[in-house]
Design goal:
Length: 605
């Protein structure tokens, strides 16, 4: 049962020092700035409420790999009794400032690294409580405060005598009774009048600190992983959101069976880095390694795919269970099953990379939906595991499913339930050659007027049509020797370029200017070709034709590979060009989706 204790701060800090209270390894290191630490100490000296901490009881066996709070490294190796879920910043700051005989590692307001000692100005501290913040002082590691470009010493606290003379009490002695008493003797020995000052200081500051209580909620050891994750995210809403990958990393690292077998803890981040590096080195569509391991395909994507495969296997053994990839499924994924399935899923993602290349999608920026790759990889891993072979018919069906998802824009919202349906429906459809057509195909629709609204790369369908134009054989308007291919997209710096430039509408047909940014008026071309595309199409096509060395009628064949009417360009007839190309693009969409949706003629009828 969850309980609320009110331990004294001195006891909590003693538990930190001994390793009784530690952090789960998924907690990030955190460093408060100097000003916040001084304000925190002032709060404690005034005995004002500090907020509730929260810890998880381990029951003698930590569910996660644990580590000590910063500064308590001497306790490493001890099994913790409590794992701190909320309060790391406060307790780390108080532990370093009030309990350790070392300067506190902190930062200034600009983020510059500092090492500071914390003192309380006794004379100010016995004044009004409203002035307490000013009474808490931090000094540099050498305990000398200087000014005038370090030429003048304003405060020297390098010895006990100098501290007493300045009436600056070192706060790291506050829980060390023997050393504090020795400091008091030196202070009153300096001046008999300090007895009264010390008595006031003891009453309004020291007694508050030594009796200060820190409320702590203690969650029982039986608390589930999912609940721990949810609790942590709620109480840390102002900080950096917890990643399930980090929680699973700590769980796997704490797997004592693995440690017993291999002599070391399991390092999930290392495993993920190896998988991701192998994928991106061959398939740039999964991200750029130099941008970090989470660029593009993420650890969460990979874990979801593994969870889908794992829960699929569980469902085959126990039909009452469900295929799922929710957070609880990831957190409940046993380490042995992850180690068994991860290589299979990694191979499946490599196949996905090849599949995307075949669709002429090779760069992260050109990928319509990253999320759609999760069920695709899971299905590949399941089917390969079931049959050991991937039928040719399956390739065609997967392509249809993929393009229906992209062009029907099916993966833009909540996707977990769709992932499950994809796996449960695609696998039998691919394995048996029959079965029910997956919902993603049945529900996908591409309305004809959607073309008008596809104006930016934010749309999956926009990127999809761009890729389909390349796939169906578009030839660049400068490099005319062969159709564009997946390998040439990077080499030629291919991107979406406007066919009728914006400037043309200003001078000719402002009525249709709203359609200038539509995908209908755009096509994949090299940067070199785009440099010649200014003015009217009739003008720049003459230049491009001359640069190609082709006869004009042959060059028109090159233009036609982009599914447009060359004569409409030569004549500068945007309306005819737009209507003709829209029809051809709709046919391209129909072919990729393998189904007819709502087209212009149907709407007119």
């Amino acid at each position: 049962m969850t309980g609320l204790d009110n331990p004294r701060l001195k006891d909590v800090l003693r538990d930190v020092a001994s390793g009784v209270l530690q952090l789960p390894d998924f907690q990030r290191q955190w460093k408060w700035d100097d000003e916040r630490i001084r304000a925190l100490i002032a709060t404690v000296t005034l005995d004002y409420p500090l907020g509730v901490a929260m810890a998880l009881e381990t029951g003698g066996t930590s569910p996660f790999r644990a580590r000590t709070l910063k500064g308590a490294e001497d306790a490493e190796g001890r099994a913790p009794d409590l794992l701190l879920l909320d309060g790391q910043q406060r307790l780390t700051s108080l532990f370093q400032a009030l309990h350790r005989d070392h300067p506190v590692a902190t930062v200034d307001a600009r983020g510059k690294e500092l090492n500071r000692w914390y003192y309380v100005d006794i004379k100010k501290a016995v004044g009004l409580p409203a002035d307490r913040d000013d009474a808490i002082v931090s000094v540099p590691e050498e305990r000398v405060v200087r000014s005038d470009f370090a030429r003048r010493v304003d405060l020297d606290l390098t010895t006990t005598e100098l501290e007493c003379a300045a009436a600056y009490f070192p706060l790291h002695l506050v829980f060390d009774v023997q050393r504090m008493n020795a400091w008091q003797k030196a202070f009153v020995k300096l001046d008999e009048a300090n007895w009264d000052l010390w008595s006031q200081f003891e009453e309004v500051v020291l007694n508050n600190v030594q009796s200060f209580q820190m409320p702590m909620i203690k969650l029982p050891a039986s608390t589930t992983m999912d609940a721990v994750c949810a609790v942590f995210e709620r109480v840390n809403s102002g900080g950096i959101q917890l990643n399930v990958f980090e929680l699973l990393t700590a769980k796997y690292a704490g797997d004592q069976q693995y440690v017993g077998r291999f002599g070391n803890y399991y390092k999930l981040p290392d495993e993920w880095q190896d998988i991701k590096k192998s994928l991106v080195s061959t398939y740039p569509v999964f991200g750029r390694w130099e941008n970090g391991v989470e660029d593009g395909l993420s650890s969460s994507d990979f874990l979801q795919a593994v969870a889908l495969v794992h829960t699929w296997e569980c469902k085959q053994r126990e039909p009452r269970t469900s295929v799922s990839c929710k957070r609880r499924d990831l957190l409940n994924l046993p380490l042995d099953d992850f180690r068994r399935l991860a290589p299979r899923v990694a191979e499946a993602f490599a196949w996905v990379g090849t599949f995307l290349e075949q669709q002429c999608i090779v760069r992260t920026a050109d990928l319509p939906y990253r999320t759609q790759l999760v069920p695709l990889a899971a299905v590949r891993a399941i089917v390969e595991g079931a049959t050991g072979a991937w039928k040719t018919s399956a390739e065609d069906r997967i392509a249809q499913w993929y393009w229906c998802g992209v062009l029907g824009e099916m993966y833009g919202g909540s996707t977990e339930s769709r992932f499950v349906r994809d796996v449960e429906q695609l696998v039998p459809w691919l394995l048996g050659g029959g079965g029910t057509v997956p919902d993603t195909i049945v529900e996908a629709a591409f309305l004809s007027d959607r073309l008008d609204g596809l104006t930016t790369r934010n749309s999956a369908a926009y990127k999809g049509i761009y890729a389909l134009l390349i796939k169906q054989g578009a030839v660049d308007w400068y490099f005319t020797d062969a159709p564009l291919s997946a390998g040439r997209l990077v080499e030629y710096n291919v991107a979406v370029r406007q066919i009728f430039p914006k400037g043309w509408f200003t001078r000719n047909d402002q009525e249709w200017a709203a359609r200038a940014n539509s995908i209908v008026n755009k096509t994949p071309l090299s940067y070199r070709a785009s440099r010649s595309m200014s003015g009217s199409p009739a003008a720049y096509l003459k230049s491009l034709t001359l640069e190609s060395g082709m006869r004009p009628e042959w060059y028109d064949d090159v233009l036609a590979t982009h599914l447009l009417d060359p004569s409409a360009l030569h004549e500068g007839d945007f309306v005819r060009f737009y209507e003709n190309r829209a029809k051809q693009l709709l046919e391209l969409v129909r072919s990729a989706m393998g189904k007819r949706t709502v087209f212009r003629d149907a709407e007119a009828g």
